[in-house]
Specification:
There is one protein chain. The protein is an alpha+beta fold. The protein has ten helices and ten strands. Strands 1, 4, 5, 6, 7, 8, 9 and 10 form an eight-stranded mixed beta sheet that branches. Strands 2-3 form a two-stranded antiparallel ribbon. Strand 2 and strand 3 form a beta hairpin. The longest helix is centred in the middle third of the chain and has 13 residues. The two termini are 30 Å apart.
């Protein structure tokens, strides 16, 4: 993607991921960063939806990144005629609506995916406000021919209830050292930190990797990249949070957020999920049990 000068009057970008890429490129403290495909569209929950729709909105963001995958687009388009009896069941710019996702998950259950989870939800989602999470995302994607892997971090892997292994997994997924991470993680026997060969290439890297679905107790996010900070070595997940209101200017007039270091930092704040955020004293953790399940779901470029 061609970089544009921050001094021009306005700057429109095609997606929030493209905006994040330019923001981290302009951040003097970023040593390296990796971003997923720019095709991800942002899906934000309305105020009245925020208590139950995060799973659906993240599913919609995952689906938006899959438009070029033939098995996915064919499966979605072939089932659209079955939605006549589902209120609100439709595609918006190729992305299924919440009602459509509910119907697709029910269809996955009927295909035999996650019978236990289906039973817990009484085999019914359409027209309800029932939450969905990792197992429903897994069933949905596999039923549409998308291979999905789930990595579960049931307990902290660092001091103060931190999750460095989770951050390692995300970093390796985006930077190409995933095989080395998986080998080290499988052989770790719960001994951390992990020792594996990491990609040390500095700079901002735009990749064609698909986004990750990140579930922790009470909420879920879409991970679109990772950022490593110069000097301290701290890492930030770069996320799209359905519950965070992102101003239209992020894509329609990004130049206003690139004027100076303060503007860049302020704009990045709404996309950063720092490594410290899952520690016991953080706002994310303080009302949660000490032993917290964190689950990362990866969509693969391979499909049936």
């Amino acid at each position: 993607m061609k970089r544009k000068s921050r001094t021009q009057d306005s700057l429109r970008v095609e997606s929030p991921v493209a905006a994040i890429s330019l923001l981290v490129s302009s951040n003097v403290r970023t040593r390296k960063a990796y971003l997923c495909t720019h095709s991800v569209s942002i899906q934000q929950s309305t105020k009245s939806e925020r208590t139950w729709t995060c799973g659906y909105r993240n599913a919609m963001m995952l689906c938006s990144s899959l438009g070029s995958v033939p098995s996915f687009s064919n499966a979605v388009n072939n089932s659209i005629n079955d939605l006549a009896k589902v209120p609100g069941g439709d595609l918006i710019q190729g992305t299924p609506t919440i009602s459509y996702i509910q119907w697709l998950v029910e269809r996955a259950w009927k295909m035999g995916y996650d019978r236990e989870g289906a039973s817990q939800l009484r085999n019914a989602l359409v027209g309800t406000r029932k939450w969905i999470g990792t197992s429903e995302i897994y069933s949905l994607m596999h039923s549409l021919g998308i291979k999905v892997s789930v990595t579960d971090f049931p307990q902290p892997t660092g001091p103060d209830n931190a999750h460095p292994a989770l951050m390692d997994m995300v970093e390796s997924y985006f930077d190409g050292s995933e095989a080395e991470f998986q080998e080290a993680y499988s052989a770790s026997d719960k001994c951390f930190p992990l020792n594996f060969t990491r990609n040390q290439n500095a700079g901002v890297h735009d990749t064609e990797r698909l986004p990750l679905y990140f579930q922790y107790q009470g909420h879920s996010l879409t991970i679109v990249g990772i950022e490593c900070i110069e000097g301290s070595g701290a890492r930030n997940l770069l996320v799209l949070d359905p519950g965070t209101k992102i101003p239209d200017s992020i894509t329609s007039d990004l130049a206003v957020h690139l004027q100076d270091e303060k503007s860049v930092t302020g704009a990045l704040k709404q996309f950063r999920f720092p490594e410290s955020a899952l520690k016991s004293k953080s706002a994310y953790q303080k009302d949660l049990p000490d032993k917290e399940d964190c689950v990362v779901t990866a969509l693969r470029r391979a499909w049936k």
